[in-house]
C-alpha cells in the first residue's frame, strides 16, 4: 500500500501485456508515457509555483500579492497565461528568425531535461543514469546556450548586453557549481543521483560538507539567473536584457523556464545534500519518501524565494569578484579538504562526521581571515586613490 | 547499457515540443498585423542609432576563456571523484596535486589582473 508508484507501473504493464503487446515494446511505451507525464506535470506545476512565489515575495515586501482571481488569487497564473495566449508574437526586423524562435524552447527543454535524473522517491524516478551529475551540468548548460541565443539573435543592443552578461554570470558560476558537485560524488563514490541519495542513509551530506552545500546553493541560484543575480535581465539597467524583444508566450516560456529552474535547483539541493527522499520509514513506504522529498524541496525553495525577496541586485564587478575570488578558490579548497580528511579519517579510524565538521570549521575560519585581509587591502587602495585626488596640485585653482 | 537513456531520449524532445506547441497555439490565436514601426528594435521608444553590433568589453572574452579552462579541468576530476572509494591515500594526494595546479592557474590569472572588472 505504501508504494503506489510501482503498483501503478506494474498494473499498467500487466494491462498492456494482457492486450497482446510485446513485453519489450510495452516497457519502452511505459517510458514514453512516463516522460510525457513528467513533462506535463513540470509545466503544470508552474501554474502553482509562480503563484506561490508571487504571494511569498509580496508578503516579504508587505504587499498582498495576487488576490483577485479565484480564492487567494490562485488562478492568477492561469489568467496571465490566457492573456499571453492572445498577444501577438513579434519577431523584430533584422532578427535571426530561426534562432530567435527556437531559443525559448531550448531553455524550457534544458530545465525539463534536468528532471529526468531526480529521484523523487525510492521507486519514483525518471531514470538512473550512471553519469547523473555530469548530465545535470551538461543539460543545464543548454539553457545558458538558449539564453545567449535569444540575446544574440534579437538584433537589439540591450539584448546583446544581456547575452554578454550571461558569459560573465551563468558561465562563470558553472565553475563553482561543478566543483561543489565533486564533493557528493566523492562521498557517495558514484555520479548517479539514486546512489547519492542512498549513500546519505546514515548521514546527510550537508553535515559532512556544509561549505560545499552553501557554494552549490549560491552558484545554482546564479545559474538560474534570478535576484540577487538577475543581471542579465536587470530591469533598471538593460530593461529586460535577453528577452526584451520577446512577446506573447515566447516570453512566457522564458518566464516558465526561470521559475521551473528555481524549483528544480531546490529539488537538486535537497537531493544532493539534504538526503533526498531519505527519512524514517522511507525505504519501506516509498510514498513517505516522496512526502519527505517534497517537504525538503519546499523548504529549500522557500529560502530561494526569500533570497529573491530580500537581497538587492549585486553589481557586475562584485558578481565576478564573488565568483572568481571567493567561490572558486573556496570550492577548490573544499574538494581538497574533503578528499584528504575522508581518506585520513578512514586510515586513522577516527569519526568521519567529526573530522569533516572540524575541517569545514577550519575552512570557514581561514576564509574569514582571508576576507579580512582582502577587505583591508581594498580599503587601503581606495584610500590611496582618495588622498591622491585630494592633493593640492589636483585641486583646480590651488596653485594661484 | 543504453536502457537508462531511453527515458531521456523521450523526455528531451517532449520538453522541446511542449513549449513549441504552446507557442504555436499562441500564433494561431493571436492577431497578426506586423508593421514597420512595430517590428523595429525596441529601445524604450527612442529610435535606434547605428547597428546592433557595438563594441563590447574585452573582459567578457577573458572570462569566457578562464571559464573554458576551468570547466574542462573540473570535468577531468570527475573520474577521480567516482573512483575515490577505491583509491589509496597517495592516489588521493595526486588528485590534490592536480587541483593545486588548477589553483596555480587561478592565482596566475588573478595576479595578471584578468579577474579585475575595470
Could you list some keywords that capture this structure?
heterodimer; A: 400 residues; mainly alpha; 14 helices; 72% helix; B: 118 residues; Methane Monooxygenase Hydroxylase, Chain G, domain 1; flat
- The helix/strand order of chain A is HHHHEEHHHHHHHHHH
How far apart the termini of chain A lie comes to 94 Å
> Roughly how many Å is the radius of gyration of chain B?
25 Å
Overall mean confidence score, pLDDT of chain A: 84
CATH architectural arrangement of chain B: Up-down Bundle
User: Span between N and C termini of chain B?
Assistant: 50 Å
Quaternary status: heterodimer
Large-scale geometry of chain B = flat
Task: Please give the share of residues in helix of chain B.
Answer: 55-70%
CATH superfamily of chain B: NADH:ubiquinone/plastoquinone oxidoreductase, chain 3
Strand content of chain A: under 5%
Level-1 CATH class name of chain B: Mainly Alpha
What does the largest sheet of chain A look like? 2 strands, antiparallel
Anisotropy-based shape of chain A: globular
> Helix/strand/pairing class of chain A, anyone?
mainly alpha
| CATH fold group of chain B | Methane Monooxygenase Hydroxylase, Chain G, domain 1
Task: Report the count of strand segments of chain A.
Answer: 2
Structure class of chain B: mainly alpha
Q: Percent helix among the residues of chain A? A: over 70%
What is the beta-strand fraction of chain B? under 5%
Amino acid at each position: 500500500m505504501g508504494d503506489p508508484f510501482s503498483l501503478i507501473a506494474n498494473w499498467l504493464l500487466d494491462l498492456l501485456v494482457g492486450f497482446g503487446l510485446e513485453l519489450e515494446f510495452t516497457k519502452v511505451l511505459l517510458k514514453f508515457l512516463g516522460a510525457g507525464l513528467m513533462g506535463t506535470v513540470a509545466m503544470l506545476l508552474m501554474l502553482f509555483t509562480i503563484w506561490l512565489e508571487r504571494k511569498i515575495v509580496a508578503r516579504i515586501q508587505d504587499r498582498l500579492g495576487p488576490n483577485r482571481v479565484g480564492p487567494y488569487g490562485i488562478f492568477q497564473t492561469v489568467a496571465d497565461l490566457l492573456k499571453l495566449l492572445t498577444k501577438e508574437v513579434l519577431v523584430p526586423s533584422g532578427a535571426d528568425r530561426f534562432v530567435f524562435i527556437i531559443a525559448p524552447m531550448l531553455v524550457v527543454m534544458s530545465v525539463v531535461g534536468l528532471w529526468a535524473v531526480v529521484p523523487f522517491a525510492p521507486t519514483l524516478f525518471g531514470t538512473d543514469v550512471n553519469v547523473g551529475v555530469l548530465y545535470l551540468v551538461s543539460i543545464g548548460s543548454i539553457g545558458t546556450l538558449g539564453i545567449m541565443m535569444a540575446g544574440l539573435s534579437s538584433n537589439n543592443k540591450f539584448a546583446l548586453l544581456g547575452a554578454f552578461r550571461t558569459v560573465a554570470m551563468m558561465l562563470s558560476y558553472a565553475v563553482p557549481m561543478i566543483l561543489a558537485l565533486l564533493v557528493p560524488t566523492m562521498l557517495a563514490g558514484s555520479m548517479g543521483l539514486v546512489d547519492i541519495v542512498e549513500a546519505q542513509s546514515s548521514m546527510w551530506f550537508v553535515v559532512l560538507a556544509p561549505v560545499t552545500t552553501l557554494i552549490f546553493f549560491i552558484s545554482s541560484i546564479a545559474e538560474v539567473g534570478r535576484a540577487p543575480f538577475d543581471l542579465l535581465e536587470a530591469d533598471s539597467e538593460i530593461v529586460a536584457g535577453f528577452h526584451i524583444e520577446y512577446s506573447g508566450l515566447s516570453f512566457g516560456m522564458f518566464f516558465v523556464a526561470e521559475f521551473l529552474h528555481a524549483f528544480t535547483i531546490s529539488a537538486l539541493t535537497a537531493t544532493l545534500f539534504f538526503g533526498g527522499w531519505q527519512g524514517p520509514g522511507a525505504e519501506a513506504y516509498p510514498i513517505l519518501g516522496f512526502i519527505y522529498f517534497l517537504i525538503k524541496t519546499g523548504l529549500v525553495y522557500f529560502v530561494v524565494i526569500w533570497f529573491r525577496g530580500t537581497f538587492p541586485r549585486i553589481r557586475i564587478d562584485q558578481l565576478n569578484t564573488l565568483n572568481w575570488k571567493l567561490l572558486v578558490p573556496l570550492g577548490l579548497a573544499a574538494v581538497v579538504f574533503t578528499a584528504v580528511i575522508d581518506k585520513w579519517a578512514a586510515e586513522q579510524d577516527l569519526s568521519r562526521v567529526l573530522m569533516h565538521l572540524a575541517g569545514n570549521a577550519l575552512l570557514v575560519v581561514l576564509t574569514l581571515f582571508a576576507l579580512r585581509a582582502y577587505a583591508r587591502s581594498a580599503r587601503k587602495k581606495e584610500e590611496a586613490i582618495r588622498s591622491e585626488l585630494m592633493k593640492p596640485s589636483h585641486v583646480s585653482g590651488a596653485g594661484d | 547499457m543504453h536502457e537508462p537513456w531511453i527515458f531521456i531520449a523521450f523526455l528531451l524532445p517532449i520538453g522541446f515540443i511542449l513549449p513549441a506547441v504552446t507557442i504555436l497555439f499562441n500564433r494561431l490565436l493571436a492577431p497578426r498585423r506586423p508593421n514597420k514601426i512595430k517590428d523595429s528594435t525596441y529601445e524604450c521608444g527612442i529610435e535606434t542609432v547605428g547597428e546592433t553590433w557595438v563594441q563590447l568589453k574585452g573582459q567578457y572574452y577573458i572570462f569566457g576563456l578562464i571559464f573554458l579552462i576551468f570547466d574542462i579541468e573540473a570535468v577531468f576530476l570527475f573520474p577521480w571523484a567516482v573512483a575515490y572509494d577505491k583509491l589509496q591515500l597517495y592516489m588521493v594526494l595526486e588528485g590534490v596535486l592536480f587541483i593545486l595546479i588548477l589553483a596555480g592557474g587561478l592565482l596566475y590569472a588573478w595576479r595578471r589582473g584578468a579577474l579585475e572588472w575595470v
